[in-house]
Amino acid sequence: MSTARTDTATDTGLRDAVVIPHYNDLPRLERCLLALRENDLTGTEIVVVDNNSPVSLGDMQQAFPEVRFVVEAQKGAAHARNRGVAETIAPRLFFIDADCVPASDWLKVGRQIADRADLIGGRVDVFDETPPPRNGAEAFEAVFAFNFRRYIEVQGFSGAGNLLTRRDVFDAIGGFINGVSEDREWTMRAVAHGYSLIYEDGFRVSHPSRQDWAALRAKWRRTTQEAYQLHGTSAAGRLRWALRGLAMPASAVVHTPKVISSDKLTSTGEVLRAISTLFRLRCQRMVWMLRQAIGGTI
């Protein structure tokens, strides 16, 4: 296992650190690292923090000698990201997930916009890993997944799959917290401390769509668990959570026109499958949220 770095960015000429949490997904990690190679890596340190995967990273280390691989035994992306920051020395921090694909100018654009805010989230495009036509999960994700502009400009947080910040910001507010929606909590905590957060559309990565209902359900089950912890578990908090849960089917009705008008779906069949998945998922979330509100588990 690697140890933390003790030299300074000034000594090494490093200005940027890319932190990539990873667990048991070598093909997508390889794709991410190959895309990073298309970027200008001058003054950049890339650190992959593996969450103790059951597969060997030996071949990956040989294929990417420019990348530092470390192991974080504590499970969770929060622990992995914190370890990655601790392992690096650069003043500027780029966060990306192992299943994301950075644009060829991702680092260049990040450097150009870095002074515009303390935290910057970017665009996340969705692509399919399977041939057309899209199934319900893929069609749903094409319309609804990863709207970072809305996350940042309306809801006041950013995901960490495409996030740029500085080490002094990270040091000032502390690391990510495991067990909650760690990127949402961390960016909202930074904003609460007075740091600025903006969206930049030219700062781009892409992410594969979930390929089936099981993968989509697992994503939203995890998200629902994390969101419940963030919204509080007091009696009043549970009541508000129950009311939000009961509103889930109505929200599917409200969002149906967005599916119908989307230019991301290429056929009537995709539109119908996306609408079906929208209602199925919102009803599932209602059941989960009501269980949580009465003290149960999902």
Weakly predicted, low-confidence segments: 1-6
Q: Order of strands side by side in the largest beta sheet?
A: 3-2-1-4-7-6-8-5
What's the number of structural domains? 2
**Whole-number average pLDDT?**
94
Annotated CATH architecture of the largest domain: Alpha-Beta Complex
Envelope shape: globular
H-E string? HEHEHEHEEHEHHEHHEHHHH
Helix-strand makeup class = alpha/beta
Q: Regarding CATH, which class of the largest domain?
A: Alpha Beta
**C-alpha-based Rg, rounded:** 20 Å
Count of DSSP-assigned helices = 13
Q: What's this model, at a glance?
A:
The chain is α/β, with parallel strands linked by helices and 298 residues long.
Which key terms come to mind for this protein?
single chain, 298 residues, alpha/beta, Spore Coat Polysaccharide Biosynthesis Protein SpsA, Chain A, 2 domains, eight-stranded mixed β-sheet, 49% helix, disordered N terminus
